[in-house]
Amino acid sequence: MDIPWYSLLIPLLVFIFFLHQCFFTTSNVQKQLPPSPRKLPIIGNLHQLGSHPHRSLHKLSEKYGPVMLLHLGSKPVIVASSVDAARDIMKTHDLVWASRPKSSIADRLFYRSKDVAFSPFGEYWRQVRSITVLHLLSNKRVQSFRDVREEETSNVIAKIRQECDSLSSVIDLSVSLYSLTNNIISRVSFGRKYNEGESGIDGKTILEKLVELIGSFNVGDYVPWLEWVNKITGLDIKVEKVAKELDAFLESVIEEHIIRNKKREYRPGKAKDFVDVLLEIQNGKETGFPLQRDSLKAILLDSFAAGTDSTYTTLGWTMTELLRHPKAMETLQNEVRGLVQGKEEIKEDDLGNMQYLRAVIKETLRIHPPNALLLPRESMEDVKLLGYYHIPARTQAIINAWAIGRDPLLWENPEEYRPERFLNSDIDVKGLNFEFIPFGAGRRGCPGSTFAIAVIELALARLVHEFNFALPEGIKPEDLDMTESTGITIHRKSPLLVVATPCSS
Fold first, then answer.
1. Separation of alpha carbons 61 and 45, rounded Å
2. Contact 481/493 with Cβ under 8 angstroms?
3. Do 434 and 90 contact (CB within 8 A), yes or no?
4. Which of 11, 180, 440, 504 is deepest in the core (most CB within 10 A)?
5. Of all helices (H) and strands (E), which one includes residue 78?
6. 418-421 — which CB contacts under 8 Å span 24+ positions?
C-alpha cells in the first residue's frame, strides 16, 4: 500500500523542530548575553546615560545587575560595576580587552590617537608606553623631579600666605591647587611653566579646553549617519580650533628646546625634562623605534593633560572632604604637625611615617575617583565574561570605578568618608586590588599613579601643616556644595572657597 507523501510531513516537521530546539537551546547557552535595558530605535540606550553617566549607569546596574549590555547607537557596550567583572576584564582577559575603541575627537586632538591613553593596542602602543614609563613615570624618574615638586609646593604655600590678610579673607583654593599641579607638570614635561601666557600662549587655558572636549559626547562615534549633527552644534569647529591651538603650543615648546639644545644651554646638575628625552630618542638610535613629530607631540600632550587634571581633581576633593569632616582634618593635622615638630618646612623625606595622610588620600580616591568611568576598552576577539556571558569581538567595556568604590558588599558604610578604613590595610592604588581601582589596572591602567601620589602627598601635608582651614562665615560643613562637573574627569563644579589662617607654630 502506497503511503501518501503528505502523511510524512508531520513527522518531518516534528523532527526539524526538535533539531532546531536542540541547536537553539545549545547555542543560546553558549552565547548568553548579559541583561540589557530596553533600547530605542537608532539611539539604543543613549538616552539613559544622563549628564552624570557614572551615576546613571550605577542606578541601571541596581536593576539589571553588575554586568549589563547597553547599545549606544550601533555600538554594543558592556558596563561592569562589580569587582569580579572588573577583575575578569582587567586581569583574567586583560589581553583581549587591551585595545581602545575609536574616538574621533581623540583622533583629532592627539594626532590620530598616537598618544598612550587612546592608542589602539599593538606594537606602537607598547613602544610609546615604554618610553613614557621609562623616561617620565618610573620610580627613578619620579624621584629625580623631587626638587621641582618641593619648590612649586613652596611657591603655592607662599602665594596662599600672601592672600591671607589680617581679616582672614576668603580665597579660592581651587585656583591654587590647579596652579600647583599645572606648574609641576609643565616644568617636568616642558622644562618651564606655561600658565601665564608666556610666548603669547596660555597653556592652562588650552589644557582646560582640551579636557572639556575629551569629555564631550560625539554622537557620530555611535550613530555614524548622525555625524552631521556635530557641525550644527559647533563641536567640529571647536575641536578643530583647539587642535590648532594645541599644535601651535606644542610646536613652540619643541622648537624652543631644539634651539636651546643647539646652543647647548644645559645647566649642570639639571634633570632633563621630557621634551629633551624625546628629542634625543626621536631618531631611534637609542630605542630602535623612531618617533615622528606627531607622535612626540601626542605623548607630550598626554603627560601634560593627564598629569595635571587628575592630580588637581584629587587634591580638590580631598580638601573638600576634610572641610566637611573636621575630625578627619584635626586627626591629619595632629599627625603631620606631630611628626615634623621643629621643622619650618616639610620635605618629602618627612612623609614616610604619615599613615593617616595616605589613608585620607585613598579614601578620597575611593569615593571620588577622578575618572569615575575608566577609559573604555574594546575586545579584540570573542570572550566569555565571568565564564558565562558571551561577549563578541569589538564590544566596548566601561568599568564603573565610582560604583565599585561605593559597593556595600565591599565597603562598610560606603557613603561615609572614613579614612580609618585604610589604616593597617594592604589595599593600594597599584591596580592589584580590584575593589579599589582609581587608576585602573592591567595593561591599560594609568602608569602615572606614582607621580600623582607623590604630588598629592607633599601638597596635602604642606597645606595642613602650615594653615588652619575653615569654610566662609555662614557655611556649615554639611552645606558645602558637592556638585560634580560633567566630563571625562569629575571635578568639583563650583570653586572651593575657604578661609586659610597661617599656623603660628
1. 13
2. yes
3. yes
4. 180
5. strand 75-80
6. 418/363, 419/328, 419/331, 419/332, 419/356, 419/359, 419/360, 419/362, 419/363, 420/359, 421/359, 421/363
Count of residues for the chain? 505
User: Is 389 strand, coil or helix?
Assistant: strand
Q: Which residue is associated with the grid cell 533539531? A: 19
| DSSP per-residue string spanning 342-387 | T-SS--GGGGTT-HHHHHHHHHHHHHS-SSSBPPPEE-SS-EEETT
Q: Return the amino acid letter for 112.
A: R
Round to whole Å and give the CA distance between 407 and 405: 6
Inter-residue contact 300 to 274 (CB < 8 Å): yes
**Does residue 25 have a pLDDT over 50?**
no
Cell numbers linked to 75? 555600538
CA pair distance 472, 501, nearest whole angstrom: 12
pLDDT in tens, 37-61: 999 999 999 999 998 999 999 999 9
Interval 433-468: pLDDT, tens? 999 999 999 999 999 999 999 999 999 999 999 999
Judge whether 194 and 249 are in contact, CB under 8 Å. yes
Residue 200 has pLDDT above 70, yes or no: no
Read off the amino acid at residue 169.
S
Place of cell 599613615: 355
Amino acid 294 reads D
With vertex at residue 428, the alpha carbon angle to CA 422 and CA 432, rounded to the nearest 5 degrees, is 135
Q: What is the mean pLDDT of residues 91-108?
A: 96
